[in-house]
Design brief:
10 helices; 226 residues
């Protein structure tokens, strides 16, 4: 596995943790609010469900915090993009050709020559554009979500005791979902460049995590209610 493959796998994993924990956290409450049987089932074991919801909240803010960490030694959205830019040679046509040959055990597939004619080789500006797209949402995170992560999740700031509601009041579900989507879109654009030699737009990629999490969670809660 190449360095970019490893990096992409780890970055994708961080985004998945953030998205899955957020949508599970969100939908436990939404499903229960719209279904009396589910609500009553959760109430019967309120302690356990409160612990689960709290754990999901911590997982979400921790993963999101890692993705926007300012430490250049850490895997963040920015270091992911910058590492890809540094490794441009791994996105080249010869590198893609070598990977396709390796995946076919050294046998040249019949389609490969024609396929390579349409391969796009990214340049530094392509990755700089991804970094620029992250910028506005990084600012939103720093203003509205980093204080929660730093003062309530990673540490218990004495000054916030009794005032955590004021921190959460600055957050918006739609804002969180937009942040998660741009993080996902960056991964998807890089995946297409690396795996297929295709340049796609951020808006070509939609985050589908909520529908998967909601369906799985609803199945679990139905069993609990039964």
């Amino acid at each position: 596995m190449s360095a970019i493959e490893e990096l992409l796998k780890e970055y994708r994993g961080e985004v998945n943790v953030a998205a899955s924990s957020f949508y599970a956290w969100k939908n436990i409450n939404n499903l229960a609010a719209n279904d009396t049987a589910l609500f009553q089932a959760l109430q019967r074991n309120a302690l356990s469900w409160n612990l689960i919801v709290h754990a999901l909240q911590i997982a979400f803010f921790s993963a999101l915090g890692r993705l926007f960490d300012r430490d250049k030694r850490s895997l963040t959205a920015r270091t992911f993009i910058s590492q890809c830019e540094v490794a441009l040679s791994q996105f080249s046509k010869p590198a893609l050709e070598a990977r396709r040959l390796a995946s076919n055990h050294g046998v040249r597939p019949d389609y490969l020559d024609g396929y390579l004619l349409g391969v796009y080789e990214p340049v530094a500006a392509d990755f700089q554009a991804l970094a620029d797209a992250i910028g506005p949402w990084e600012a939103v995170y720093n203003t509205n979500y980093q204080p929660i992560r730093n003062k309530l999740i990673a540490h218990k700031d004495v000054a916030t005791i009794g005032g955590k509601d004021s921190l959460f009041a600055k957050t918006k579900i739609e804002e969180v979902e937009a942040i998660l989507e741009i993080l996902h879109q960056v991964a998807a654009v890089v995946e297409q460049l690396f795996n297929n030699g295709r340049l796609t737009n951020l808006i070509d990629h939609k985050l589908r995590e909520e529908e998967y999490v909601r369906r799985d969670l609803e199945s679990l809660l139905r069993k609990v209610a039964a």
